[in-house]
Design goal:
mainly beta; Jelly Rolls; 3-stranded antiparallel sheet; 6-stranded antiparallel sheet; 164 residues; globular; 1 helix
Length: 164
């Protein structure tokens, strides 16, 4: 097994408060509203991520990733990103040492999840909830890219690859 700790894609919200910007551009848990707060409503201090301002990083042939929440320092309790997979591309069999939630936004694909007997058809309106350490893979099967929205319940995106 090979472990990839993917922290090379730091991305920060582009319209953060001045106080947040003064902290070296890192969006802290307090800036994201995870610290105790008496104000449960809308706040002008909440960072907003404009997806069009976040670059896409190629991490495998035919696959790009946009880190929307998270950074290389692990300053947020989760990492959130959008993965775009070209038609025919496939992730390696892998797992994460934490819960991963994967929602299909666009395209068609199929997924394999350890313990299941069949491949799972995935398309918009499907969300996979993958427990920690559950091996899985997915691939784009249609003629358009497969676009997924992933939430990693960890400050760092850690990928344990189980195939060559």
């Amino acid at each position: 097994m090979m472990r990839e700790v993917n922290s090379r894609y730091p991305r920060y919200p582009t319209r953060a408060t001045q106080a947040t910007k003064e902290r070296s551009g890192v969006i802290s848990t307090a800036a994201l509203g995870y610290a105790a707060s008496a104000n449960a409503g809308w706040s002008a201090d909440v960072p907003i991520v404009h997806h069009h301002d976040v670059s896409r990083e190629t991490f495998r042939a035919g696959m790009t990733y946009q880190t929307l929440v998270g950074d290389e320092r692990g300053s947020t309790p989760v990492r959130v990103g959008i993965q775009t997979s070209a038609p025919g591309s496939r992730t390696p069999m892998h797992s994460h040492p934490y819960l991963e939630v994967l929602t299909i936004l666009e395209g068609q694909g199929e997924a394999w999840i350890e313990g299941g007997e069949d491949l799972i058809s995935i398309s918009p309106g499907i969300t996979l909830v993958l427990p920690a350490d559950q091996k899985h893979w997915f691939r784009a099967t249609g003629d358009k890219p497969l676009i997924t929205y992933g939430v990693h319940a960890s400050p760092h995106r850690i990928v344990d690859v189980h195939e060559g």
